[in-house]
Amino acid sequence: xxxxxxxGVERVVEEVDPATPLLWVLRDRLGxxxxxxxxxxxxxxxxxxxxxxxxxxxxxxxxxxxxxxxxTTVEGLASPDGRLHALQEAWIAEDVAQCGYCQAGQLMSxxxxxxRKPAPTDDDIDAAMDxxxxxxxxxxxxxxxxxxxxxxxx
Amino acid sequence: xxxxDRELREFVAEATGAPxxxxxxxxxxxxxxxxxxISATGLVxxxxxxxxxxRATGTAxxxxxxxxxxxxxxxxxxxxxxxxxxxxxxxxxMIVAEELDARWADVRVEQSAIDEATFGRQVxxxxxxxxxxWDALRRAGAAARAMLVAAAAERWGVATNKLSTRxxxxxxxxxxxxxxxxxxxxxxxxxxxxxxxxVLKLPRDYRLLGTWVPGVxxxxxxxxxxxxxxxxxxxxxxxxxxxxxxxxGGKVARANLDQVKKLAGVVDAFVLDGNGKATELMPGVAIxxxxxxxxxxxxxxxxxxxxxxxxxxxxxxxxxxxxxKLLDADGEEVISxxxxxxxxxxxxxxxxxxxxxxxxxxxxxxxxxxCSAHFHDGRIELWAPTQTxxxxxxxxxSTLGIAEHAVTVHQLRGGGGFGRRLVNEWMCEAAxxxxxxKGPIKLQWTREDDMQHDFYRAGGFxxxxxxxxxxxxxxxxxxxxxTFTTDGMNAVSGGQLGKTVFPGELPAAHHMSQTKLxxxxxxxxxxxxxxxxxxxxxxSFIHELAVAAGRDHVEFLLEQLGAPRWLEPGNxxxxxxxxxxxxxxxxxxxxxxxxxxxxxxxxxxxxYFSHAGHVAEVADVSVDANRKIVVHRVxxxxxxxxxxxxxxxxxxxxxxxxxxxxxxLAQQITFEAGRAQQSNFDQxxxxxxxxxxxxxxxxxxxxxxxTGLGEPALPPLAPAxxxxxxxxxxxxxxxxxxxxxxFTV
Lengths: 154, 745
Ligand code: FES
Ligand code: FES
Hints:
The complex is a heterodimer of chains A (154) and B (745).
Chain A: E1 2-6, E2 9-13, H1 22-29, E3 48-51, E4 54-57, H2 63-66, E5 70-72, H3 86-93, H4 103-116, H5 122-128, H6 139-153
Parallel strand pairs in A: 1-5
Antiparallel strand pairs in A: 1-2, 3-4, 3-5
Helix pairs in contact in A: 3-6
Chain B: H1 6-15, E1 31-39, E2 42-52, E3 62-71, E4 74-79, H2 88-100, E5 107-111, H3 116-119, H4 129-156, E6 164-166, E7 169-171, E8 177-179, H5 180-187, H6 218-222, E9 238-244, E10 251-255, H7 257-261, E11 266-272, E12 284-289, H8 292-301, E13 304-307, H9 316-326, E14 333-338, H10 341-347, E15 350-358, E16 370-376, E17 379-384, H11 389-400, E18 407-411, H12 425-434, E19 441-444, H13 447-452, E20 460-468, E21 474-485, E22 509-518, H14 531-549, H15 553-561, H16 577-590, E23 601-610, E24 613-623, E25 629-639, H17 646-666, E26 671-672, E27 675-676, E28 694-699, H18 717-729, E29 735-736
Parallel strand pairs in B: 4-5, 9-19, 15-29, 17-18, 21-22, 25-28
Antiparallel strand pairs in B: 1-2, 2-3, 3-4, 6-7, 7-8, 9-12, 10-13, 11-12, 14-22, 15-20, 16-17, 16-19, 20-21, 23-24, 24-25, 26-27
Bound molecules: FE2/S2 (inorganic) cluster (FES) (2 copies).
């Protein structure tokens, strides 16, 4: 049995192999399917979550290690009252998504960036988003949406 | 072990333009509007229509259709086609809403059931969703609008022709308004409009089409709601993996199933022999366990001895060596021939000779295949993000040996398609596993499964030779192509040369031929099949010719197009040289063609016609001494007729540029001993944000009916970038990916 803090809530996971990647615990055991599987080797970023505000690939972090930290997934990005995060608003306004599969991971990497740098430059964005692949090629819209959200934040 | 890829080839033939293959959904004379009753949520104004099933059959098989209804305070429009990122879940309902004059905020989009008899072609592919549905969707909207207007006319006691509509309201000449919701009940009692007599809007009167409309699933996407195939979960589901031989066609000789079955969480492990069809079920080992991780952990402990006696032995190095020899002579199959090309080449004042080639590539859609299935009482239900749901039903029925009506498929959003989800073998695998297990299962492919068991874009080899006269005009064209066949007869899908690869009329003396090498690994349709590779070869070579002739590339290219005309008279799906010339000139102009560029930087241009779309692109590229390239900007000019959703259309072009660049830079699947040697993104790199160019998209809107945009913006990208690299550093790239020549980003 393990206890995880996900989106501010303590969740108990029974009978779990401690070596299970956090990704599969979120998806299969906790029903948080916003975090996606793309490669399983830390190369695509589809599984990005925040671990104590740092972007981490959930496919490459064991649930045992994750249990010591506070985890935020895309489901926890909006406020509990449903008000969207500035990034989510910006993603909708810029109509970023094509298939949408990578976007949860992109949002989490961007959220970590804005926490650290409320007004990022293009270079900051390139560096922060380097671990996230968008197979559909929505990169320029992601960039615009981050700038838009940053503008709204400041 | 020949692979039956007939379906895929037909699909590609359809996508490359024979007009007879375009099954435009057309509403017929018989139609009716009816009160469909009180639904759970309110009064329903149902628009039921009868449409002939397919024009090509020439029969009037009429069946009911239903694209929209008014329900409570929503106008519900059904999205009929699979959504894999091409935007049809938004764009197709917009077409209905336009003719209905619905306020977009009042519209709720609902994914329809799979029912091609009702909705026509429910396929995502070939950039065909919009063009095939265009007429039916407009008439569906217009018919409902006519009924609402008639209801308002009755209430006000005025003639219908005095009334107008706007934003879900009928408007009286005195300014009074009645909402569609108020009118729904009365509208349902109105006599039926004649669908053929409906007056459709002129493009200049559009209020919604051509505007920027964000995707209807955006909110669900950014909040992480379950949408995709991989997200679907049935109560009490088990999880499954399916392990096939890394060389296509290998059979299971032995496997340590007893050991695997003892592992934690494992419920069952068994061998499936399959039916020998790569598009359905090949032999393998299924492991079923209580969660994904248990499945994956058990898989690592699985040991299989494969019997590879009938498996693929494909080798790309052997194929390349053979191809180079074959290119020394004309191919065995003549594609197009006129005049005496050898004589014309001999008489030319100058000839240019070049060999081009490109690698096999994988689709690598970001969501690995995933499918839920539940078999019970002789029936099976599947939840699948397929691009061809109706074909999926056939495939599953064939695999299980049950009737098609015993198969139900629920459409789920796909995390990318690019042609990979035209094939449904993963659905068949899920079905076959579900048929052996009590209760529902969810099959999850790994990324490695996905990359090593794809229906790959086949590689190809070309030898071109062309002649120029003293004034620099093209006088002779000889093209030899070595391609692949997996059935021993037909070229693989996307691997069939045609004379349409040339932008215009081929010279009076020309010869095009091809030879097919036997190949065993499955090949399939990859975004813009055929065009995605032929554009690189032909548009690069035309640039080589312009350079050899000492002529401006734009001028030389326009000369090939010739006089303004449809290249195949009567075929509105063929190249129109006037539309082509317009996009070429426009892209060149916007990109500042002809301006002086700094050292090490150049502009490159390419045009390609595919999927009825005319697209020209200009790339602005720098190359440094270490062969590092930077693609600064790509200017896209496209004529795809009326734009449906400005945002979606631009997104497709922006994405096609990134996709094209990603593929040409470093992507290749190499095969040795029948095995794909790449298995994940560490060996098959996808473009990342820091290397994504700025993209300027320009639509040259014409009054032609809209044609799709999922594909045609991709083919010109590779030749535009290669031509720019030549302009920047003088080096001609004749092989993709360009990594082979040491170029990187
Ligand atoms: S799934 Fe974790 S980085 Fe790709
Ligand atoms: S939107 Fe499809 S992978 Fe990013």
